[in-house]
Design goal:
Elements (H helix, E strand, L loop, with lengths): L3 H9 L21 E3 L8 H5 L48 H11 L12 E3 L4 H10 L12 H9 L2 H5 L6 E8 L29 E6 L7 E3 L11 H13 L4 E7 L9 H11 L4 E5 L10 H8 L1 E6 L8 H9 L2 E4 L18 H4 L1 E2 L2 H5 L5 H6 L3 H18 L8 H6 L3 H22 L16
Parallel strand pairs: 1-2, 2-3, 3-4, 4-5, 6-7, 6-8, 8-9, 9-10
Length: 455
């Protein structure tokens, strides 16, 4: 097998080419120019080289536990290996490699600027989640977790410091493949909490925009972007074929829950769901994803989702779930139990004002303590309303898909995917903040800008 690194790493070293506007017409790159900040490889590609040396676990899930990790997750520029040799759109995607994949996609964009002085935004190809792994998996480094990102901050302040100082970092953005909560521990916390670092608490990075898989309750630095699914189409035909399959799928099951199937010791929404499903097997299907069973096997949950009308999305350790986006892709109407699960997270991709059109909301307190029955509530939704909601779900599905790198021009022109909308949102946020810095009182920069970007 060809080592994925031999293909992956050289591409990420290719220099960006600036977008050129037609001198006779309007500038298509106005307000859209991005400079990719040059970083030493220790901040990105070198981290990928260590995947087979037990530096961090990125092994093929099918590999024997005693074998050397083959770095299979790096295949296809971070999308992972195909789920089947003949598969054209489905991959065993590891979300931790979203940073590398996003880097690859940024390199494909038009309107890249070699000169940062010409850029509207500066992208940092820093693989933050991978760089954090030693701090969160090595007990010997637990007390050093506050140093995560310090080397990057020192480099940016020392190397071409004018790039950072021009707008005080407000025009810088990067991707962190994880929850913002996992990177927001106080740098002076004692004892240090296992599994988290203080990256977002570094004062040198305070003005950067972090694209995370989950934002905090009152985000200032970060904005949430969709969890990557396993579906990455490369052509408009592949995307339309999948959506057509989801649209015509027969849905005999009322509701589905995909997640850990063990009952919690204390009352909570997951326990209530499992209890109802145990009592109403005629209406509910549970897909047991405990122990990582579903992490790299999309067929395990996508087929049941295609046969279900509603997919339940209870919070777990954190409010958001990848399953939300799997459900949307399957045309299974998501059922949320708190606003932090999606409505207050993904405003650039799922406009908050439209949530009632494609989802159901049930307060978790009403279910756990108020006697509300999920099955009875969903059975009461008229069938015509269910069909309408499913249609709306499939309409927004392309917005949360990460299309494959090197996709066809037809697909790129027809549909804005998760990366496109994230970059559009970043550019809008940077315009808002730089305008506030230039035209208004300094305190305006701390106001919460409009989150929703409906396109």
């Amino acid at each position: 097998m060809v080592n994925p690194l031999l293909i992956f790493l050289p591409f990420l070293s290719v220099a960006a080419l600036p977008g050129n506007a037609d001198a006779a017409g309007p500038d298509p790159c106005a307000g859209r120019r991005i400079h990719i900040r040059g970083l030493p490889p220790r901040f990105n590609t070198d981290l990928l080289r260590h995947c087979g040396a037990n530096a961090f676990p990125l092994a093929d899930p099918s590999a024997a536990a005693t074998s050397v990790p083959p770095c299979e997750s790096l295949a296809n520029h971070g999308l992972g290996p195909r789920t089947h040799p003949r598969s054209r759109s489905w991959y065993r995607t590891d979300a931790r490699l979203l940073e590398a994949f996003f880097h690859r996609r940024i390199l494909e964009r038009d309107c890249l600027a070699d000169d940062p002085a010409d850029a509207d935004a500066v992208f940092l190809p820093y693989y933050a989640a991978l760089d954090a792994l030693p701090y969160v998996i090595d007990p010997a480094l637990l007390d050093e977790s506050a140093r995560h990102g310090v080397a990057l901050a020192e480099f940016l302040s020392r190397d071409q410091a004018h790039i950072l100082s021009r707008r005080h970092g407000h025009d810088h953005f990067l991707v962190v493949a994880g929850s913002a909560w996992d990177y927001a521990q106080s740098p002076v916390a004692e004892p240090r909490l296992w599994g988290s670092t203080s990256l977002l608490r570094l004062p040198e990075l305070a003005n950067f925009t972090f694209l995370t898989l989950e934002s905090r309750t009152w985000p200032w630095q970060e904005h949430a972007i969709p969890h990557p699914t396993s579906f990455h189409p490369s052509s408009l035909g592949h995307l339309r074929a999948w959506l057509a399959r989801a649209r015509r799928s027969r849905r005999a099951t009322l509701m589905l829950f995909a997640g850990g199937a063990s009952r919690p010791s204390r009352p909570n929404i997951r326990g209530s769901i499992l209890s109802e499903c145990a009592n109403r097997t005629d209406a509910c299907v549970v897909v047991d994803c405990s122990g990582g069973k579903c992490a790299h096997e999309p067929v395990r949950y996508m087929r049941p989702m295609l046969r279900s009308k509603f997919c339940l999305q209870p919070p777990g350790d954190t409010p958001t779930r990848r399953s939300t986006f799997d459900a949307i892709l399957a045309g299974c109407v998501p059922v949320f139990f708190e606003d932090l699960a999606a409505r207050r997270q993904y405003g650039w991709h799922l406009p908050p004002v439209r949530y009632d059109e494609f989802s159901v909301h049930m307060p978790k307190e009403a279910v756990v303590f108020g006697g509300v029955r999920i099955v009875e509530t969903l059975e009461a939704v008229p069938e015509e309303e269910v069909r309408r909601m499913r249609q709306r779900v499939l309409e927004v599905a392309p917005r949360v898909v990460y299309r494959r790198h090197g996709s066809t021009p037809e697909l790129r022109e027809a549909v804005k995917d998760a990366v496109d909308l994230a970059v559009d949102g970043v550019l809008q946020r940077i315009r808002w903040r730089t305008r506030a810095l230039e035209d208004g009182p300094p305190e305006r920069i701390y106001a919460q800008e409009e989150d929703s970007v409906d396109r």
